[in-house]
Each structure stands twice: as C-alpha cells, then as structure tokens.
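Chapter summary example.
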Amino acid sequence: MVYLIIGILILLFYLFAAPKSIRGTLNVVTLVVLLVSLVILLCLAIFQIFQLPSEFFVGAFLAFVGYLALVDISRLPTKSSKRLDKSD
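The structure predicted for these 88 residues follows.
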C-alpha cells in the first residue's frame, strides 16, 4: 500500500510539477524500471513453467503435432466424386 501511495505521488509530481528538463530523465528512468520489471517477471514465469509436471509438456507437444496433422489433412487435394450414371 505504501508503494502505491508513493507511485501516485510520483505520478502527480510528473504530471503537474516536473519541469521539462526533468521529464526526459523521468521518462528514461521509468523505461528502465519497466524493462527490469519485465525481465524479472519473465524469469519468474520461466521458473514456474519448469515446475509443471512433465505430462503437461507431453500433452502440449501432442496437441501441436495434432494441429500440424490437421493442417496437412486440410491441404490434401480433394478428389472429385463423379457419379457414374448408367442409364440403360
């Protein structure tokens, strides 16, 4: 909760009180903080993925192979079914 209040205060300072020369610096600092946060979240997500049971990975692989099989089946040429009408 404290970090939320501090974040709101920094945002209000940026919007209403920061001079133009400081806004460029704040933009760069904000960009760096966001990039570092994304990298940390990506690492944590990778750790969580590897904690999943192996059956999950096997199932995902089989679903992918099934999708490729369906794509191949849909690309097969269709034979034209000609009716053999024998009118005698």
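To summarize the output: Residues 20-50 form the longest helix (31 residues).
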